[in-house]
Amino acid sequence: MSNTDTEKPGLPQGKNTEESSDDLIPLGNQKAKEESTNETPSKLGKVKQLLSQVKSVSSGIIAKLPGGNKPLYRRPLFWLGLGVSGGIVAISHTVWSIDRTLPDKSELNVVVREQTLTIKASDGSILQQQGEATREQLELNKIPDNLKKAFIASEDRRFRQHHGVDAQGIGRAVLNNLRSQNVVEGGSTITQQLARILFLKQEKTVLRKLKEVRLAQKMERELSKDQILERYLNLVYLGSGAYGVGDAAWVYYSKTVDQLTLPEMATIAGLAPAPSVYAPDRNPEAAKQRRNLVLQRMQEDGFITAAERQAGSTEPINLKSSLPKRLQVEAPYFTTYIQKELPKYVSADVLAGGGLVVETTINPTWQKAAEDSVAKILRNEGRWENFKQAAMVAIDPRTGEVKAMVGGKDFGKYQFNRVTQAQRQPGSTFKGFVYATAIATGKNPYDGYEDSPFVVDGYEPKNYSENFRGWMNLRDALTNSINIIAVKVLIDVGFEPTIKLAHDMGIKSPLKPTYSLALGSNEVNLLELTSAYGTFANVGLHTEVHGITRILNRQGKEIWKASYQPVQALDPESSAIMTWMLRNVVEDGTGRAAQLDRPVAGKTGTSDEARDLWFIGYIPQLVTGVWLGNDDNKPTWGSSSSAASTWHEFMEVAVKGMPVEKFPSRPKLEGRKGTIKAERVKPNRIVNRPIRQSEDNSDDSDNSNNRRRSKRVSSDNSDNSNNSDNSDRPSRRRRYRSRDSQDNQQQQQQDDTPRRSRRRYQQQNDDTPSSSSSSRRRRYRSEESNSSDSSSRSSSRRRSRRVESDSSSSSPRKTQSSAPESNSRSGSSDSSPTQSWRERLRPSESSSEGN
């Protein structure tokens, strides 16, 4: 049977689904369907009737119009309507397109121009500005009323009435310009001018004018009249590099705005349309005419009386010009450093957009003190000790903020920043990291080493004095800066632990694993070295050094903020022990010229042939580093004592009003466990030689005298240090003290060379009792300087000191010794010498201190 013959269940036989669908509709629904079908034709008929009526009416109207009997495309009104409607569409599209290119609502609240950069100190004062920047940003209530009224009368007489664009003002300007046959009045409102200043270029095009109009209307909706006027008065260019009324008052009259007279206010207000044309310093006659016109308009608008106008118009143009304040730069080395740091914190497109305000960490008072200290040391000691450059940086060790930075002298000639760019050998200041590693491995400060002739893998370190002291503990070795013991300590703790700790504490420069690392042969810069010593001051916590606290965009919104977290680089106990040891360097060792009326810790450093003179010192609240030397790396005749005294000069000012804080107390030394694992270096060959008497004497009397003198100085320092430190070896101490006593007796019998005579003459003067700290400081500086002067010259004649570059080298024996670190007194002379020509020309100590 086929499918067509199959009956579907549930349906009547002989009918398909379509045919039976009507049969299934209930009777009531079927009736409703019929009624709706009848209503549809009637509705359609009504619509057709209405359309025909509209057509007949419109046809009748069109027929009555001119040309009604013509086709549509030949009728003028058709094309007129088409043109009007098309124009409306075109204008709407143009406005829409322009609005798309304009700043949005959130960007209208800007307060600075594009392409500007303002760098501020920690107290909000301006250090430097670049671009079209306003130095004197004034609040509206700080601007005199007459000055505000002068600008309104001159630039926008209906400023309070319009909504961004003044059609009446445009018509009046056109009429006045036609009458005078010149452009004497502009149609732009103050709001339009502000929009052009902040967001648009100065090209004279229709598109730019349309943008200006739309921006002015948007700004009027978002800002109050007072806000618009305040921004305009602070940003308008008024010639001679002056942006804003505050700058103009200074540039033309060397006054603040509240000191200006009415004619002076009118003169400044008259500059806005064309600063180059109406500049009173270039075109005084044109400036006078423009001033009088502004006074006339002020009278017409009821701002001043006729008498005031008359009096103001008769006054001559009296100028007292000054350079724009925005061209002044404070702390130029620091601001240059900040500009180089900016790309780390903001993207290139943000920098290109400009308008940034950078808030920094610099303390203006401390910055001035640092600049004065650097200038003083270069003016005085620099001439006699043959160094021509100096650098200083001060850092808050708890926050890592740079508080003062001086990168050299005379930034106009030498833009090179010796704090951040000069890589120099740190000398003995690097010993701080070597000894810190030793303490962190568990060593006791009273653990001792033998100071004796020593050669390791062909490298032979030497003390500056070229003598040996025998057994010394770590504390005394650091206090007196003994080179041989520093190398032995480095071998015991290892290269890698020492290098890692130095990097963790703040050293950024690469460090090579060589024996000379202990003596500071690897170059670093002053900023990282000072920052690393700040870790000692902060109980082992290191905070990344930085100079920027916040960066604001043109709208005054914060786009970056410093949030550096301290990291534990050295355990607190080891840090406290190192501070205790470094305090002894200042109290009884090579850094005594840095003493203050509070606890101080620090380390001196001198590289080969005194090419670099260092002192890095700290109190709990501040760490400061000083470097002295020459850019061409020439040797100096000075010593690290000069750096320490420069540190003292600055810190005396910095600590004024600063509460005295104590360093952490020294922890218990017995039973300490190390926090760093030592990785002892395994040299291929070590040669230890005993101390022989012949090594302390020489046929060259000059060399012998210098060695004995340096030995006596260092021994005196050692004896002055805490006697309890050496109680475990009294016999050795007495033996070396006896030898030093013999050296002192021999020294008094030496012949009087001019350089020794000058030294003894100064020492006799220094032996005069004095209770003032400044006289003690001068004495230490004089003694160290003189000792270094003779010693460095003689040592350069008798040996060539070289820095090892590879610890595994098999080359012939190499030697290295740091320059003088001791500033102890050398003993008095028995006769008054004849002064040399250099001594007779040198100013007295008292005069040097007074400069």
Total helix count?
Answer: 30
- Over the alpha carbons, how many angstroms does the gyration radius reach? 43 Å
The share of residues in extended strands comes to 5-15%
Terminal CA distance reads 130 Å
Instruction: State the helicity in percent bands.
Output: 40-55%
How would you describe the shape? Answer: elongated
Please give the number of β-strands.
Answer: 18
What do you see in this structure?
- Pfam families: Transgly, Transpeptidase.
- Keywords: Carboxypeptidase, Glycosyltransferase, Hydrolase, Membrane, Multifunctional enzyme, Protease, Transferase, Transmembrane, Transmembrane helix.
- It comes from Plectonema radiosum NIES-515.
- This is Penicillin-binding protein 1A.
- The chain has a 5-stranded mixed β-sheet, with helices on one face. It has a 5-stranded antiparallel β-sheet with strand order 5-4-16-15-14, sandwiched between helices. It has a two-stranded antiparallel sheet with strand order 6-9.
- 45% of the residues lie in helices and 10% in strands.
- The chain is α+β, with helices and mostly antiparallel strands and 851 residues long.
- The N terminus and C terminus are likely disordered.
- The protein is elongated and about 135 Å long.
Give a brief description:
Keywords: Carboxypeptidase, Glycosyltransferase, Hydrolase, Membrane, Multifunctional enzyme, Protease, Transferase, Transmembrane, Transmembrane helix. With 851 residues, this protein is α+β, with helices and mostly antiparallel strands.
